[in-house]
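Re: beginner question about structure tokens

> Can someone show what the tokenized structure looks like for a real chain? I only ever see the sequence side.

Sure, here's an example I had lying around. Input first:
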Amino acid sequence: MLRDFTKLETFLVVVKEESFSKASAKLGISQPAVTQQIKFIEEYLDTKVVHRKKNGIKLTKEGEDFHKIVTRLSKSIQGAEKDILKIINKEFTFKIGATFTIGHYFIPKHVEEIKDQIKNDVYISIDKSNRIKTLLEDKNIDIALFENQVPSDSFVTREWRDDELVIFSNQPIPPVLEKEDLFKFNWICRDEESPTRQLMSEALEEIDVDCNTFDVKGIVDNSTLAKETIAHCIFKDKPTVSVISKHAITQEVKEKKFFEARLKDRELKRKLYIAYNRERRKDAFVEKVTKFLLSL
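And the corresponding structure tokens:
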């Protein structure tokens, strides 16, 4: 078993996430596959290592001891991977495709760290989801970062991190919005193909609100345009708002250039995803970059 670290990595992720289903999403494999790998470990050790409970999992005493051993092994393997990458000594440009919000507001601050991880240059391509999907399918990028889950039999898709959408304006607005408040604004909406628009529409449908009934002043197709439009908004009759990832306006909110709000009793939360071609899942550089991103 120790020759196949995949099962041990699955065990570590199950422990970290305290859930078989969450581990499944993080690893990009089915939940039955996670269960099967844990079962293999238990059969190999001839003892129970994990108890599944309604609210998560609990390690047995043997499981706790095994976890300590596997954690030490994982650290040793990570050190060995760095040495192996030095031996490979392959000069190339690692290409990452990212949708607009991720490409503009998540990845740039980590580019130098990624370059240091793989000792090579990194290129970022930013576009809509369908275009990034095509680039990955055509093998023109090494990994893709999406704001929504993009189904494909040829991809391994893994949950990356959490994101939250907020309503924002360049004028003060209530921090918590009632259903009725939504009709008191001018709106800059996202295009209908946007994952941001889709999530917002779903949340509004739950409270019986159709965003097509808003006073829409414009439609934009990415978060940067949304920010720029709101920043330079000249409608004075009432605040103009749009929807964006809270991470895209953190600095502006601190400086009170923008004001953010959330729907009452509704969280506009979503998962961001990492995807790469299934045939590249054992690629040393893809593995290294993926592990680094998952550690953020």
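Each token stands for a local structural state, so reading them left to right follows the chain. DSSP finds eleven helices and twelve strands in the chain.
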